[in-house]
Amino acid sequence: MCVIVGVSAKGAPGVSLGIWSMLPCWPRPVIGLEADTSGGSWALTHGLSWDPGLSDLAAEQSPITAETIGRCSISLTPSIRVVCAPKEPLLVRRSLDWLDDRLSAWPEDLDVLVDAGRSDGSHPMLTRADAVVAWCRTDPQGLGATAALLGSLERVVRPGVTVRIVTVGDDPYSPAESVEALAELAGPRLAVRHGAAVPFDPRLADLAAAGVRKSTRLAQTWFGSMATEIAASTAHRPAVSQPSSMPVTLRSRRLAS
User: Fold this and answer.
1) Residue 145 to residues 94, 166, 181, 182, 185: CA-CA distances in angstroms?
2) 112 φ, ψ to 5°?
């Protein structure tokens, strides 16, 4: 099992759409886990349900098996399942307390892509991460907030974990300049490299929030290569020959688990 955690510092949008869009590009069986401590949005955005979801997974008393995951998640394709978080932040935090203790018992043949939302580096899933993807605005405020996040990550992630930076925008600094500055500011225990570059477009953010097909298609082009590269670099077993395919939008359709 590989655990990939997506986070952002203050003011950097796009984590939820990014992790969602990486799922169909992942070359192994994968579960998308919504774990944003400010509350879930996947169910509303993509026309899904919170039931079954993160709260159901936290309520499980039996050992975690493939059957457990099946009961507490929603199937998008034969190789992609998602666990949506409830809207209430308190319920998400309580569920994550349980999940942090039991994640190591998850089935070895199922990777986990985690939407951790905005974080100061204290999210419990970060201590389990095999790779971290951090979203960053390329302005002074965004770079400052991300540099502070990297300082926190250095204290909690395991040695050898790489943080890939997804830059949002190119003003006033280019993606290359932004990542170079962050790599210099990061401590010696943290490897920082560029992951993807996303244009800053408020209109696209509105489309993504509404679950519109165009935003998901574009996001897959931005994050597809990064997903494939991360999967290869964190592989604990051979990848399948072809990536999974997932409907671009699931709005107005509730899927059965």
Assistant:
1) 26, 14, 13, 11, 12
2) -130, 120
CA–CA gap between residue 180 and residue 71 (Å, rounded):
44
Structure tokens, 59:
């309520």
pLDDT for the residue 60: 83
Please answer whether residues 231 and 239 qualify as being in contact, where contact means their C-beta atoms are separated by less than 8 angstroms: yes
Cα–Cα nearest to 10, from 151, 134, 146, 187: 146
- Residues 70 and 29: their CA atoms lie apart, in Å, by 13
What's the chain's Rg over C-alpha atoms?
17
Q: Assign residue 47 a region (left: φ > 0; alpha: ψ between -120 and 50; beta: otherwise).
A: left
What is the phi/psi pair of residue 188, to 5°?
A: -65, -20
Q: What is the pTM of this model?
A: 0.88
CA torsion 222→253→70→91, rounded to 10°?
Answer: 80
DSSP for residue 234 = T
Is 232 strand, coil or helix?
helix
Distance (Å, rounded) from C-alpha 227 to C-alpha 69? 22
- Position 207 scores a pLDDT of 64
Q: Is 201 exposed, middle or buried (0-12, 13-18, 19+ CB in 10 A)?
A: middle
The secondary structure of residue 52, as a DSSP letter, is S
Instruction: State the 10-residue block means of pLDDT for the chain, 257 residues long.
Output: 91 85 93 94 90 90 82 94 95 86 75 94 91 95 95 92 94 95 91 92 67 73 92 68 41 34
Instruction: Note the pLDDT of residue 33.
Output: 95
pLDDT of residue 212: 64
Instruction: Indicate the length of the chain as a whole number.
Output: 257
